[in-house]
Design goal:
about 350 residues, alpha/beta, Aspartate Aminotransferase, domain 1, Aspartate Aminotransferase, domain 2, seven-stranded mixed sheet, three-stranded antiparallel sheet, 14 helices
């Protein structure tokens, strides 16, 4: 029999907009954003740029669109972007850089938190005049496939120093950069300071229904704006959704600490369950990744018990993500259900 209610831990993208967001959306002042006439979009872009410490912002439909817009602005066809071996832009963004930009993605290893190996990075960047040209180095903070790992200000600066020594730009996929900022107790602008462009998502932990923002120098954003339109991002009266993004930035950042606390509670509980392999101390933000035997069957049994989880980086790696709408009591209930699932023997195939 199914459990009385579903606890959805697949992703922080399943968050619902807050009542304040719904109210702001209903009353949003709008105009045609392609003409630059939507005052709510303009306000969101200015607020986002202020939070990131950049000159300008550009509202885009998604983090994938934001990353691709930045890559297409940094690169010309035939250029190379260096990315981590576990980067979201490599594994989860549909190959857009290659398909639409003719950009080669070259990988260097990520460590367990998502940091690039600096020696491998320096070795990978091509010498001046080499082909393809290494145009940009991409970082991710927090790092999705590396368990929500956080990169420090100093680590980002180390990557940027190597990139700039070789004439390459730095792009920061900061989809969850506010999670990193809360975890490190530093402003997000410090984490973005060494990047030439940065994206962040409004629709993950910040709980807005749609959207991301590209933040960069004004000249970069000027060149990126027509690329956004080419990608289908001219959203016209987009203030209706930008209004929720403003509420997200003004009211939803500090509460991310609650998600982090719940993730640590979840990780400590999971680590005590037989058959679950997890270093609970490694959990820094709101993503918990653990390993089990026969992950597909395990996730299906969890689903039947009313707990939704996702696979990441391999069939036996299970990801759970805490977010707005998930309470401490939900975590405690989820752990009880996982314990029951883990204690249930796997069905054996018929002889």
């Amino acid at each position: 029999m199914p459990e009385p209610y579903v606890i959805d831990l697949r992703s922080d993208t399943v968050t619902q907009p807050t009542p304040a967001m719904r109210e702001a959306m209903a009353g949003a002042e709008v105009g045609d954003d392609v003409y630059g006439e939507d005052p709510t979009v303009r306000r969101l872009e200015a607020l986002a740029a202020e939070r990131m410490g950049t000159e300008a912002g550009l509202f885009v439909a998604s983090g994938t669109m934001g990353n691709l817009t930045c890559l297409l602005t940094h690169c010309v066809r035939g250029d190379e972007a260096i990315v981590g071996s576990e980067a979201h832009v490599l594994h989860h963004e549909g190959g857009g850089a290659a398909a639409l930009g003719g950009i080669e993605l070259r990988t260097v290893p990520n460590d367990a938190r998502g940091m690039l190996d600096l020696a491998a990075l320096e070795a990978a960047i091509r010498a001046p005049g080499g082909l393809p040209r290494t145009a940009v180095v991409c970082l991710e903070n927090t790092h999705n496939r590396c368990g929500g790992g956080v990169l420090t200000v100093e680590e980002t600066a180390g990557v940027a120093q190597i990139a700039r020594q070789h004439g390459a730009a730095v792009h920061l996929d900061g989809s969850r950069i506010f999670n990193a900022a809360v975890a490190l107790a530093v402003p997000a602008s410090r984490l973005a300071a060494e990047a030439d462009s940065v994206t962040f998502c409004l629709s993950k932990g910040l709980s807005a229904p749609v959207g991301s923002v590209v933040c960069a120098p004004a000249e970069f954003v000027r060149r990126a704006r027509p690329i956004r339109r080419m990608l289908g991002g001219g959203m016209r009266q987009a203030g209706v959704i930008a209004a929720a993004g403003i509420v997200a930035l003004e009211t939803m950042v500090d509460r991310l600490a609650e998600d982090h606390d719940n993730a640590r509670l979840l990780a400590r509980g999971l680590a005590q369950i037989p058959g679950v392999r997890l270093d609970a101390a490694s959990v820094q933000t709101n993503i918990v990744i653990f390993t089990v035997d026969d992950g597909a069957a395990f996730r299906q049994r969890l689903r039947e018990a009313g707990v939704l989880a996702s696979a990441t980086g391999g069939p036996n790696r299970v990801r759970m993500v805490t977010h707005y709408g998930i309470t401490r009591r939900d975590i405690e209930e989820a752990l009880e259900r996982v314990l029951r699932v883990a204690a249930r023997p796997t069905a054996q195939p018929a002889a």
